[in-house]
Amino acid sequence: MVRTAVAFSPGHISGYFMKVAGESPATTGSLGAGIVIEEGVVASASAAETIEVVVGRRDTEGAVLSEASGSPPVEYALERLDVSARVETRCSLPIGAGFGLSAAALLASITAVDALFDLGMDRRGIAALAHEAEVVHSTGLGDVAACQGGGIVCRTTPGPGGEIRRFYPEEAIWAVSFGPLPTPEVIGSQAQIERIAAAFPEGCPSDLPEFFRLSRAFAGRSGLVPPEVGAVLAACDAAGVRASMTMLGRGAFATGDGAEEVFSRFAPPIPLHIAREGFRLLEVRA
């Protein structure tokens, strides 16, 4: 049997954010708040002659929904570590749709590779490399920082080593997705970044209702909400359901009585769970 290391990282839904541009990837990131979700990415790594990454999505029953070869951010991380491995990532949520799966794939993959090759990396080093890969490839700014732990997250300084506050509500979360919203097109546009900065709320939420209030206000002012998401949010408003847009994705997330029913009018509702902890090694199989 081929020696294989398996690791997991939760995903992350950003409710609101503001880019902070630094002089390097390490000092570039974002401020903001979001929800770390237990529905994330599992990565399996085994030694290979060359770097190979397979990105798979399966439903909750394990049936394959899609499979693709290659992931520039994960390949970048392996090159930085100077190792050759075959990495397979697996998730159930839609990819590129605002669930932080790029960051989750990086954290899980690096954690698995670290264990496989006994590299001796600590959590800070794993997060730093994952964050660097995200920034270099414009796939995210704050998801790595958030996925170091669980809960509702408020990031008040940029980067994985920044100040992060967390609290852990018990409420269920629901989501709907209409597909991807290309992150590089948003965080790479100076005009859009300026609109986002103007919409950014000050302070951290003290509870889940305040988090949704701040997120919803940000979504409305940011100019990011596409028409199909706007229709969902309007229906939630009419039903008294707390909801906002998944940043960055063509979708919405909500909590409370009525959330599932309202979402079901537009697309199949996705049940989500607030994570209690961050990325971690699951096992090493000889």
Automatic annotation (TrEMBL):
Per the record, the pathway is: Cofactor biosynthesis; coenzyme A biosynthesis
SUPFAM superfamilies per record: Ribosomal protein S5 domain 2-like (SSF54211)
Q: In its keyword annotation, does this UniProt entry include ATP-binding? A: yes
- The residue ranges of the GHMP kinase N-terminal domain are 79-150
Which keywords label this protein? ATP-binding, Coenzyme A biosynthesis, Kinase, Nucleotide-binding, Transferase
Task: Cite the EC number.
Answer: 2.7.1.169
Gene Ontology biological process terms, A to Z: coenzyme A biosynthetic process
List the catalysed reactions.
(R)-pantoate + ATP = (R)-4-phosphopantoate + ADP + H(+)
The signal sequence is none
What molecular function does GO assign, one term? kinase activity
Q: What class of enzyme is it?
A: transferase
Q: Briefly state the protein's biological role.
A: Phosphorylates (R)-pantoate to form (R)-4-phosphopantoate in the CoA biosynthesis pathway.
**Family under the similarity heading:** Belongs to the GHMP kinase family. PoK subfamily.
What this protein is called in its record is Pantoate kinase
From which organism does this entry originate?
Methanofollis tationis
